[in-house]
Amino acid sequence: MTFEHLEEKEAVEVASLIEKNGFAFYSLLADKTEDKKIKTVFKKLAKDEKRHLKIFEKKYFPEAGFGEEITEEELAIEDYVARTADPKIFTEEIDVERLVHVIDSMKKAVILAIHTERYASEYFEGMAQKASTKEGARMYRGLAHEERGHAQELEAILKSMRQQ
Predict the structure, then answer these.
(1) What is the CATH number of the domain that holds 32?
(2) Which of the ends of the chain has fewer CB neighbours closer than 10 A, N or C?
């Protein structure tokens, strides 16, 4: 697959950032929580996000002209908080460790994660519709399906938190 349009290359970059930031976010949350059930879900989600990132790295990074990892850009944590932890922040290079540090409750972290997974699912569905190959569209739809599943898992956690 050769990128015929700059938008395709940028879409892969954004998708990779979603996965990279998601992996870091869930890994840090897994370390932070004491609840074994929540820890297990966060570890599974981190593993899934890492697998998704590897798909992009293997399939698209060489053609997109990326190195092995996307270039780091510095953004201030105050900007994230000021934007009410908008799930779109995962489409930027962020300091996830600092983000997790300022989230003052596991419930808020789960809510942010749900919104982020929903956003990622919508993003991948959009990429599937714009994909230039059937193979690419199938891959993006598969990722969108997995992200919807992540949101459902997180919604179950949130529901159990509300019942406690």
Answers:
(1) 1.20.1260.10
(2) C
